[in-house]
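Quick one:
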Amino acid sequence: MNPQRSSCVAPNAATHSENTHRLSDFRGKILKLAFELRNRGYSEAYLSTLIRALNFIALRAEFENTGSVLEFVARGKWRDSYKANLCDFYNQYCKFYGISFLKPRYVKVNKIPRVPTEEKINLILGHASQKYVIVYKLAMECGLRPVELGSLTLDDIDLDKGVISIVSAKHGNPRMLKLKEETHALLTNYVKKRKFGINERIFPSGAVISNTYERLKASIAKKLNDPELKKIRLYDLRHFYATMLYYRTKDILLVKEKLGHKNINNTLIYTHLVNFNDKEEYYSATANTVDEAAKLIEQSFDYVCDLDGVKLFRKRKWQKSLSICEWQHRCMFITLLSQTTTND
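Output:
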């Protein structure tokens, strides 16, 4: 949950100093609440979001004056879903400290997930450091949530088999996911260069990963003058994975399993994100060797038949395809990046 800019007039320096001092008065109480909720089994991701949300409110309103908080939330130019989340977190604080608070009736509206194109995702990958290329590819190709990426340890990875084991966030089902060949190679190289302990997390926290992504995305969007890039959240890479998996298999139960969902209703949304036209158009490709055929399959091409000793493949024109030559150039670029990047 990223704090959004208040619609109120920006405070002057004196007001800012006063607000900062006010936050220091409540920071200890907010952390005490978080520790108590952790003991009750709340996830680290939830607690991190709760702390950020309460700090956000405490900086901008009279924190234990419920009328001031209600007015601050009501005046904010945010969606009702965001306001409802703020009030839910504040209600946790009030219940814990015995403050009377009547939650307003903001309605949370479930939005249709945004699914970015592979071309846009590759623009972001092309500007990321070696470490974050791996992070974003795990989100894009395995559907990992930011908090799951931040919780990944060496013990969760089978480098020999190219498989990762995920304990799902949001109390979902655990799952095992097969890495693509390129991502497997990058991750193996990354891990071998660092001396991680067996239970040591190999990436930064989910919050750091998300913040780094937001800065990178904004920088690329400005550099390329592409406002569409600004709309792509890190979580949308998970939506891309789920949508493409359903697109290829049309097996909603498989998608549910791979996403770690407990409730099928959370998975069914992806059936609405794929547009199967009556007139289907395809990319075509050919392979003369086993290696070429394997590379096409990794790009989601489907085998059609053999003709004159050549294997024919096809893929629907929903996503941008890469030719064998383009694929090889992309691999060369990432290999070069891994050799030259020192500041990751």
